Model the fold of this input.
Amino acid sequence: MEVTEEERRQVEEQVEWMMSGQGCDVTLCDVGLEQSKPATLRKNVTYIVAAVIFNEKEEVLMVQEAKQDCYKQWYLPAGRMEVGESLVEALRREVKEEAGLECEPITLLLIQEQGPQWIRFIFLARVTGGTLKSLSAADQESLQASWWDRQSALTLRGRDILRLIECGLKYHQTPWHPVTLPMDMSCRHVVQRLVLVFTHNDAKIWVLVIKAPTPHLPTAAAVKTHAVTWAANMVVQEAMPKAYYDHDVNTLGVFSLQHNGRQHGKTDGVCFNTLVALVPDYVQRDEDGEKIEWKLTGKPPPVENSRYVWCEVRKIPLKEKLLEMTKNTSILPIHSLY
Done:
């Protein structure tokens, strides 16, 4: 079934809105809600914030741990979000408690996740005040803070932060995706809203939409047993089960994210507005495991579920921008640590 021209215009507007870094209320969840529980901080979700902060010498801010299991080891300012906080408030608090400095976020650098129960938000930030914490101010939060030139020997709590520092340095020198900061919009579950696209020969591009109550981008709840971005796979499985095993479902990045956190257990969720590409697996095999020739049709795989429909993007500037983004992803990355 084809969409009408009016419906196409509505879908294109929704895609443009997402691509501009905006969000919209999660009024319904189309897929996976029955497998998901409302996000409740410290019960079934844990959000970690981490700060990558450089000084004028491009030295990075580090803190020395006070916890017994990593005593005197060094790490980025980081910690768990507390009930009632926003992501940015948690960032400011952690940097102040652990490093003695006040800060403001510049942008999110990277999101890492191990399913909806553990998500880490890494910010690039700048110092706006305060005094660097010295040993004389040591407490249970940290022993001290220092600027690290990234060359001197330092006993690290974990080498995972080296990648985060490099990512921050790269962005600090040459920003490669738009400034992305959390939007204060409530969400009950951890969900993924999809701009799910299929392309052909750099000439055409389609977006998968749900038809009712009006054509809209699918929203799917994250489930505890899988990565957050598995939600996109759930949508494809529901929409076109026969084609699912012949395609890869690739979440390319995050246009924007929505979080509020003011009402414990009611607004602790996060909505990730994402770009997802459905890519044919060009190596096909028959029942005996022998390779068979892949037949290109020039069209997306047929939808088998009447809830869904493919909408071809015909607005030329939007089509060109989407096609370019599928080749050269320049949006906030989200990485699964599974």
